[in-house]
Fold this sequence. Notes:
Distance between the termini: 21 Å
Radius of gyration: 17 Å
Number of domains: 2
Oligomer: single chain
Largest sheet: 2 strands, antiparallel
Low-confidence stretches: none
Mean pLDDT: 87
Structural class: mainly alpha
Number of helices: 2
Strand content: 5-15%
Strand order of the largest sheet: 1-2
Amino acid sequence: xxxxxxxxxxxxxxxxxxxxxxxxxxxxxxxxxxxxxxxxxxxxxxxxxxxxxxxxxxxxxxxxxxxxxxxxx
Length: 73
């Protein structure tokens, strides 16, 4: 069971780093979520938001990061 503890600690550190980036650079990330391709419907009593392009961008970046980690470690 020792490897699972290692993975949990690594996941925790990753969450803390992501949180710090959002906290420190949050005002500079205003463009994220407003990309072309993100669907936003706003009516009087209804709001719908589907960040398709933003999620594709996150997926590509995470896939690249995980590929690099596997390649070098």
